[in-house]
Amino acid sequence: MQRPEAWPRPQPGEGAAAAQAGGPALPARAGEPSGLRLQEPSLYTIKAVFILDNDGRRLLAKYYDDTFPSTKEQMIFEKNVFNKTSRTESEIAFFGGMTIVYKSSIDLFLYVVGSSHENELMLMSVLTCLFESLNHMLRKNVEKRWLLENMDGAFLVLDEIVDGGVILESDPQQVIQKVNFRADDGGLTEQSVAQVLQSAKEQIKWSLLK
């Protein structure tokens, strides 16, 4: 009997939608014994990443699928997650059919969201990379004030870690090097990643006053 592959590679366009939505496994191929076909793995691991302040207000957020299609639905979800996690010391929560890993830092809460069947260690690697990269960028001041003043740099960091729900990088040093390269490529100074697109500082302050 032919030995089934433990983790078959997804064919182009095959299995990604079902895996992302937590759907059933694909039917067995011709000649393959029933029940031995495992669910196709998906590269689309991350559903959302967001950072809230200690009142549960959104500071940074990116969603990578249509689970919460509107900003209103996203913010309701974030508030519910915050209420469930802000007073616990755990690092993992299961909420609304999703797996959520999170970390607090001074007056910030960082969250990474995956599907219910997602590997917690994989999600945690993204969370750790995000925190360590921000820690380096903000010179060990991972708190609301410094995050708001360097929001564009924070988005650049996140974009180097996750793109469209796909994990690109989990090494903080590699992330910082790539962000620095993008800063240099744009003709900016290399004093620190925190100075990337510094003009955004006034724009962020203005948006907060509205």
UniProtKB/TrEMBL annotation:
<feature type="compositionally biased region" description="Low complexity">
    <location>
        <begin position="12"/>
        <end position="32"/>
    </location>
</feature>
<dbReference type="GO" id="GO:0006890">
    <property type="term" value="P:retrograde vesicle-mediated transport, Golgi to endoplasmic reticulum"/>
</dbReference>
<comment type="subunit">
    <text>Oligomeric complex that consists of at least the alpha, beta, beta', gamma, delta, epsilon and zeta subunits.</text>
</comment>
<keyword id="KW-0931">ER-Golgi transport</keyword>
<keyword id="KW-0963">Cytoplasm</keyword>
<dbReference type="GO" id="GO:0030126">
    <property type="term" value="C:COPI vesicle coat"/>
</dbReference>
<keyword id="KW-0968">Cytoplasmic vesicle</keyword>
<feature type="region of interest" description="Disordered">
    <location>
        <begin position="1"/>
        <end position="32"/>
    </location>
</feature>
<keyword id="KW-0472">Membrane</keyword>
<keyword id="KW-0653">Protein transport</keyword>
<dbReference type="GO" id="GO:0006891">
    <property type="term" value="P:intra-Golgi vesicle-mediated transport"/>
</dbReference>
<keyword id="KW-0333">Golgi apparatus</keyword>
<dbReference type="InterPro" id="IPR022775">
    <property type="entry name" value="AP_mu_sigma_su"/>
</dbReference>
<keyword id="KW-0813">Transport</keyword>
<dbReference type="GO" id="GO:0006886">
    <property type="term" value="P:intracellular protein transport"/>
</dbReference>
<protein>
    <recommendedName>
        <fullName>Coatomer subunit zeta</fullName>
    </recommendedName>
</protein>
<comment type="similarity">
    <text>Belongs to the adaptor complexes small subunit family.</text>
</comment>
<dbReference type="InterPro" id="IPR011012">
    <property type="entry name" value="Longin-like_dom_sf"/>
</dbReference>
<dbReference type="InterPro" id="IPR039652">
    <property type="entry name" value="Coatomer_zeta"/>
</dbReference>
<dbReference type="Pfam" id="PF01217">
    <property type="entry name" value="Clat_adaptor_s"/>
</dbReference>
<dbReference type="GO" id="GO:0000139">
    <property type="term" value="C:Golgi membrane"/>
</dbReference>
<comment type="function">
    <text>The coatomer is a cytosolic protein complex that binds to dilysine motifs and reversibly associates with Golgi non-clathrin-coated vesicles, which further mediate biosynthetic protein transport from the ER, via the Golgi up to the trans Golgi network. Coatomer complex is required for budding from Golgi membranes, and is essential for the retrograde Golgi-to-ER transport of dilysine-tagged proteins. The zeta subunit may be involved in regulating the coat assembly and, hence, the rate of biosynthetic protein transport due to its association-dissociation properties with the coatomer complex.</text>
</comment>
<feature type="domain" description="AP complex mu/sigma subunit">
    <location>
        <begin position="45"/>
        <end position="182"/>
    </location>
</feature>
